[in-house]
Give the backbone structure.
Amino acid sequence: MQCTYISALSFADYGSHPECDVALRSAYTALLEKNGYVHVTEVPDGFEHSRFLAGFGDFYPGPSGKLIDDIIAEPGMDDVYYGANRRALMPHTEGYEFDGLPPRYLALWCIVPPVGGGGETTLLDAYPLIEALRVEERNYLETQPFDWQASEGLRRRGLGQRSSHPILETIDGITLLRFSYNNILLLPGAVEPVASFLNRTKQVFDAEHITIKYQRNDLLHFDNWRMLHSRTEFEDAARHLKRVQIRYRG
């Protein structure tokens, strides 16, 4: 089993040796905090992804109402913007439309990889973009509330939430970014400064994102307050991922 930047450690015997488990989790957590994500490959059959991930916090129910969601293309939904179809997605964070805090972490693991390419998750660390903001820009994004709405697909299914939040917040000293390129509702007076930030961010995302390709059992775990993510288009409707959203512990 290989883990992004942890080639010498193995999850194969996770749960069998407490001292090794502590060392592995410590190294894993350090990478998650440093880089904003961890991608683990060559995961052995029998590894309990959800049990391992539960150590990072409580799970937040997904659109299905379940704590562990199945990410499968739903028939008849390819005509709308929606996470559960086969179309490409725009860069975003998860839960921007939630009333409270969005999930701190997202994790995906692969049950059936797509045949024929596509269906990759793409990621970008947004913190350098935030750090490069001018003082007045950052102040505006931290103090001006904006309306956010769920994707068109969720609204079609009657699951569309809507809320009002600033783009940037600081929670217990941690920078929280809410971002959606196409599901933030801009009032006329806010269009110019926010549109500039949205467009700059998307340009950097398109040019500099990393691409995660899935094989069976692969695990991708990332900081949802920091990392933008999207998905490439794919054709194979058999593609099947599991997903958990992990609450902020506080």
